[in-house]
Design brief:
The chain has about 280 residues and is mainly alpha-helical. Helices cover about 75% and strands about 0% of the residues. α4 runs parallel beside α6.
């Protein structure tokens, strides 16, 4: 692909799918020819939904950055450094999946463009194979896989934060009980919930996990819709083939007639006639 084409694809992908000229052309063609537009519309909505979850994650990261900047009392605290590193890591992950969604949008646009070209070349029959123009299932599965992996990473990190917080509070309780023993007081048994710092460290991961789960669900729905469109096209193809075949009874009758004709065409064995009066 040349540089101009790459720039053009990126520009197209930056525009909301529903506003893209090729997408609008295809939807109009489907509607004008009495074809169902709900499948294509659902795919567009799912792609937009994934974009929105990315925007939510980006917005939340910006909010957390501002909150960190306002924490003057934590200026040199190691927790602040840990949070800053966490946010940088999450930013990179959001950027990665955002790039995957941008590529997916570009493929959807190409699919619409190709479908419109096929319609103008072959007519309405080209619309019966709509799913074949959208080579996006692999991209959707890649996005889903990435979202699941990031969600699992978030779970692991949250578990570590919780474990560390619990151990921290247990250690604090032990020190307090030593002091209580020294003055003859009863020990404390309860363990406090995770502190403010532990919750602050875990919040970016909880937010990011929620966004990844939303993206995964959108990708799942889009994959289901692509599969549904493919199945519908296959059913139509089978119905078309079946419609071209004569009814079963007619085919049986034709077969019987063919067999009868073949029997009639078989050569009849010639009889050998000996001439009279030539016997010795």
């Amino acid at each position: 692909m040349n540089e101009n084409a790459t720039i053009g694809s990126a520009k197209n992908a930056s525009v909301p799918l529903a506003e893209n000229e090729h997408v609008k052309d295809l939807i109009a063609i489907l509607a004008e020819n009495g074809k169902d537009t709900s499948g294509l519309t659902a795919i567009l909505n799912h792609c937009t939904g994934m974009e929105n979850f990315c925007k939510q994650a980006e917005s939340k990261i910006e909010v957390m950055k501002c909150q960190l900047d306002e924490m003057k009392e934590m200026q040199n605290h190691p927790i602040k450094t840990a949070l800053q590193n966490t946010i940088k890591s999450l930013e990179a992950k959001v950027a990665e999946i955002k790039g995957m969604i941008t590529s997916l949008k570009a493929n959807v646009i190409d699919g619409c463009k190709n479908a419109v070209a096929a319609f103008r070349d072959k007519g309405v029959i080209a619309l019966d194979k709509l799913a074949s123009f959208f080579r996006i299932k692999g991209g959707l599965e890649g996005i889903k896989k990435h979202a699941i992996a990031v969600s699992k990473d978030c779970d692991k990190t949250l578990a570590k934060i919780e474990s560390f917080s619990n151990e921290y509070h247990k250690a604090g309780r032990a020190l307090k009980n030593m002091a209580r023993f020294a003055v003859g007081k009863q020990p404390i048994d309860e363990v406090k919930e995770a502190g403010k710092l532990a919750k602050a460290v875990g919040e970016p991961y909880r937010t990011h996990k929620a966004c990844m789960n939303g993206i995964r669900k959108m990708a799942d729905k889009a994959i289901e819709k692509i599969d549904s469109l493919s199945k519908s096209a296959e059913v139509k193809r089978e119905e078309s083939v079946a419609a071209k075949k004569p009814p079963l009874m007619v085919r049986l009758k034709e077969k019987k007639e063919l067999i009868r004709q073949k029997d009639l065409e078989k050569a009849v064995p010639e009889r050998t006639i000996k001439p009279r009066g030539l016997e010795v």
